[in-house]
């Protein structure tokens, strides 16, 4: 299963409150995530943008007016709080906050240490600016400025060599995605894409798998994890039941993606999941799918449906 970084309740609420009237790239910058990730989460939440000419669109003359309370809060907290925190309280975009700060002579001037500069030099080709921003605690614009100053450029990736593919096969099960990215000097996205293409797309227990494992342990159900069956690895095996935990995004939950897959990874996983199910059923397994949406939103229902079934074998 993939190592998906889940959205916190605070982030989800922030998207719900602001997606319709704030530019997606600004939301992505505020949350330290990619634009595509924000769009995907908004799609899952059923959110749509308000047309700029709509009467409820917030970029009106009235919305651009700052109250005395907002300005006072900005003066008191600008140097100590992130743009996300400020935005949550002031109810304005990071771009608007930065512009107002400049107009009243507030300056966020966090200098770069030698350690941070070296980290940027060593990791920029492999890590995105959003990832770097979270690690070294500098803003997106600050990192982009430093990249330009240092003359760093994205490495134009060449096709995978035979030796790289063999090394990926050899190390895939034992190493984390981050380690593989460093060893192969390729982005995490590139490693995942190649793993999918090679049919070895599987990772150590995700938070979804851990949550389901905790459920089984709490109900005293004996199980085995990450069991190999031919060319596939099963998440959980309980006698003749093969249980797969599927993330909503990575496995394209049809209740969320009503119009079908939106990425090549989802396309791949749909085909792979179907082939895997057929393969396991031919070998006598009864395949059960536990979806992320159900496990997190209907936990008691999952427990009441799954546990008695496993105990009655």
Layout of SSEs?
Layout: H1 9-18, H2 24-31, H3 35-44, H4 68-77, H5 83-90, H6 94-103, H7 114-123, H8 129-136, H9 140-150, H10 162-171, H11 177-184, H12 188-198, H13 207-218, E1 224-229, E2 232-238, E3 241-246, H14 264-282, E4 286-291, H15 292-297, H16 299-311
Parallel strand pairs: 3-4
Antiparallel strand pairs: 1-2, 2-3
Helix pairs in contact: 2-3, 11-12
Summarize this structure as a short list of keywords or feature phrases.
four-stranded mixed beta sheet, 16 helices, 313 residues, 4 strands, alpha+beta, 4 domains
Describe this structure in words.
With 313 residues, this protein is an alpha+beta fold. It has helices at 9-18, 24-31, 35-44, 68-77, 83-90, 94-103, 114-123, 129-136, 140-150, 162-171, 177-184, 188-198, 207-218, 264-282, 292-297, 299-311; strands at 224-229, 232-238, 241-246, 286-291. The chain folds into four domains: 9-103, no CATH class; 114-150; 162-198; 207-311, 3-Layer(aba) Sandwich (Endonuclease, Chain A), CATH 3.40.960.10. 52% of the residues lie in helices and 8% in strands. A four-stranded mixed β-sheet has the order 1-2-3-4, sandwiched between helices. Strand 2 and strand 3 form a beta hairpin.
Write a brief caption for the model:
The chain has 313 residues and is an alpha+beta fold.
So what's the CATH class of the largest domain? Answer: Alpha Beta
Helix content: 40-55%
Rg computed from alpha carbons, rounded to a whole number of angstroms? 23 Å
How many domain regions? Answer: 4
Strand ordering within the main sheet: 1-2-3-4
Stretches where pLDDT is under 50 for at least 5 consecutive residues are 55-62
Please write the string of helix (H) and strand (E) elements: HHHHHHHHHHHHHEEEHEHH
What is the count of DSSP helices, taking H or I runs of 4+ residues?
16
CATH fold annotation of the largest domain: Endonuclease, Chain A
Which descriptor suits the 3D outline?
globular
For the secondary structure, the number of strands is: 4
Biggest sheet details: 4 strands, mixed
Name of the CATH superfamily of the largest domain: VSR Endonuclease
């Amino acid at each position: 299963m993939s190592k998906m970084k889940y959205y916190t309740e605070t982030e989800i609420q922030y998207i719900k409150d602001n997606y319709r009237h704030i530019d997606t790239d600004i939301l992505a910058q505020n949350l330290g995530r990619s634009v595509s990730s924000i769009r995907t989460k908004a799609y899952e939440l059923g959110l749509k943008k308000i047309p700029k000419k709509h009467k409820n669109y917030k970029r009106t003359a009235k919305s651009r007016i700052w109250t005395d309370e907002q300005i006072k809060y900005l003066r008191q907290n600008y140097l100590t709080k992130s743009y996300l925190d400020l935005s949550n309280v002031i109810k304005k975009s990071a771009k608007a906050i930065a512009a107002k700060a400049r107009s009243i002579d507030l300056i966020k001037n966090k200098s770069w240490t030698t350690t941070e500069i070296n980290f940027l030099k060593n990791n920029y080709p492999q890590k995105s600016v959003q990832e770097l921003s979270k690690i070294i605690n500098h803003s997106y614009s600050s990192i982009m400025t430093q990249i330009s100053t240092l003359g760093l450029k994205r490495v134009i990736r060449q096709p995978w060599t035979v030796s790289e593919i063999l090394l990926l096969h050899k190390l895939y099960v034992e190493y984390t995605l981050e380690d593989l990215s460093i060893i192969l000097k390729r982005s995490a996205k590139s490693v995942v894409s190649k793993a999918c293409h090679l049919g070895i797309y599987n990772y150590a227990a995700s938070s979804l798998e851990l949550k389901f494992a905790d459920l089984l342990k709490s109900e005293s159900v004996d199980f085995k994890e990450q069991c190999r069956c031919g060319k596939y690895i099963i998440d959980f095996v309980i006698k003749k039941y093969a249980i797969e935990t599927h993330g909503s995004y990575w496995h394209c939950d049809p209740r969320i993606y009503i119009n079908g897959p939106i990425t090549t990874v989802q396309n791949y996983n749909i085909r792979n999941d179907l082939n895997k199910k057929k393969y396991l059923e031919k070998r006598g397994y009864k395949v059960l799918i536990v979806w992320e949406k159900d496990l997190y939103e209907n936990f008691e229902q999952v427990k009441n449906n799954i546990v008695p079934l496993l105990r009655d074998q």
